[in-house]
Specification:
mainly alpha; 112 residues; 4 helices
Length: 112
């Protein structure tokens, strides 16, 4: 129960940073914190005692964990990493033309 509250707190912390931070770089970091919290929540839900990793033991009769959620989480981690890299490249391109990464300043510079 305490772990679930901590993970949900991390998700809310990332979401609040995404909504309230004025800097683009801080918003990217907040999005990473939020996605880490979501992945942690799925890992916490999937963690069960009494099941084994899906490696075949022909001599033992044991209950195996379902490998599909693990594959989905690994895919989510890879997609999250690539999305973060793409957003950081976009922030680098914006920083060449703008002296700051504050979203209000950037929007003000691009208004006609």
């Amino acid at each position: 129960m305490i772990l679930e509250a901590c993970v949900l707190g991390v998700i809310l912390l990332g979401f609040s940073g995404l909504v309230w931070q004025p800097s683009l770089l801080l918003k990217i970091i907040a999005l990473d914190v939020m996605s880490t919290g979501v992945i942690g929540y799925f890992v916490l839900i999937a963690a069960r005692t009494g099941v084994f990793t899906p490696i075949l033991f022909p001599t033992q009769s044991v209950t195996y964990a379902d490998p599909v959620p693990q594959a989905v989480i690994l895919t989510a981690i890879v997609i999250g990493l690539s999305t973060q890299a793409l957003m950081l490249v976009g922030a680098m391109k914006l920083s060449k033309n703008n002296p700051t990464l504050e979203l209000d300043e950037i929007e003000r510079n691009y208004l006609p």
